Amino acid sequence: MRIGLSLAAIVNPGGIGRYVRLLARALPRQFPEHTYIAYIPSFRERKVRDALAREGVEGWEPKIVPGSNRWTYETRGLPAALRNDPPDVHHGPDYLAPKAPCPVCITVHDIAFRLHPRGMALKSRLLFRFLAPGGIARAAKSGTVFCDSASTLSDLRRLRWLGPEDGRVVPLACEDEFREAVPEDELLAFLDGRGLSRGYTLYVGPIEHRKNLATLVDAYQLVGQVLKRRGPTTPLLLAAGPLGAGGNRLKKGLEKSGGGLFHYLGYLRRDEIRALYAGCAVFCYPSRYEGFGLPPLEAMCAGKAVIAANASSLPEVVGEAGILVDPDDVQGWSQAILRCLTDEKHRHERETASRERSRLFSVERMCGEVMAGYESAVNR
């Protein structure tokens, strides 16, 4: 097969960019018998090439597609490129699938742009709101619609963007390095460089309203009140990730209400995030809505106890290995965190369960299921 993949989102720092980078790196290695064509928007060419080199991506034939922005790339440049030389199947890995003479596949990670637009930049919100429904319909008709979770697939069917028989769930994966132990000297250098000690509680992800960090901070205030009666120090609640829409104001509010326990570390590199996981006692993810939830999976791969909101896709990711709490239950969050911080046996049981659960989510499985979707599209 000649397989086309749009690389417009490969430069994104979040989970969608990582998904595209993993596909681009792993597909040619896992399935070398196929031909791979990378469609690169001209307005991002340099950044895309830098990302390909940084991630060690090989085996792709690059095609530069004209476009001064994402809208013109998706609506004019990419459709023209596909008409001029159509591959056997084309994959839009970031919500959008252009008009094309070949079968098209699309990956829908979530529909936050419809259900939680407050946390998204206006340009992206409008782009997906106007173009995603048509792309989903085209992929359902001619190819395959991939969803990161059954929760997202259910959302698409509920909105009637997909029929009851359309779509397939392909769970995400994270880089294998999250399963590797962080060397002790690297961990100590990271912690010492930031004045941190082991045993903190951790959140990783964007700072935005749908992540529900206010509930987590309120719960941690209760944890701090209990721990102060038991000893002289209370572990910090740390957060790392980009500032989403309205994130700076939200961060300041969390720091003010956190009573000195909440600390925001900013956006960190992947090696720094690995060290951050290695040093934590428990990982918390109180988000109200997710299409998948990569940070909880990363924490499980690192062998950490995970507490997550019992909402949207998160139960699919953490399963019985994690501790699920209603996103609005401040008392429930405080009790779950306190037990993980103070009950060593319980915490170790959760850590073992996390490692075992994480093995269900591999890059090989993800790419294998994506390839099966390509084959299904071509055979249709």
Any overview of this molecule?
The protein is of the alpha/beta class and 380 residues long. It folds into 2 domains: 190 residues, Glycogen Phosphorylase B (Rossmann fold), CATH 3.40.50; 183 residues, Glycogen Phosphorylase B (Rossmann fold, 3-Layer(aba) Sandwich), CATH 3.40.50. The protein has 15 helices and 13 strands. A 7-stranded parallel β-sheet has the order 3-2-1-4-5-6-7. Strands 10-9-8-11-12-13 form a 6-stranded parallel β-sheet, sandwiched between helices. The model has no long low-confidence stretch (mean pLDDT 96).
Give the strand line-up of the largest sheet: 3-2-1-4-5-6-7
Which structural class is indicated by helix and strand composition?
alpha/beta
CATH architecture of the largest domain: 3-Layer(aba) Sandwich
Uncertain residue ranges: none
Number of domains: 2
The beta-strand count equals: 13
CATH superfamily of the largest domain: Glycogen Phosphorylase B
Helix content: 40-55%
**Mass-distribution shape:** elongated
Q: Helix count?
A: 15
How much of the sequence lies in strands comes to 15-25%
* Topology as a string of helices (H) and strands (E): EHEHEHEEHHEHEHEHEHEHEHEHEHHH
What is the straight-line distance between the termini? 14 Å
Sheet of most strands:
7 strands, parallel
Q: Radius of gyration from the CA trace?
A: 21 Å
Question: What name is given to the CATH topology of the largest domain?
Answer: Rossmann fold
The first-level CATH class of the largest domain is given as Alpha Beta
What is the average per-residue confidence, as pLDDT, rounded to a whole number? 96
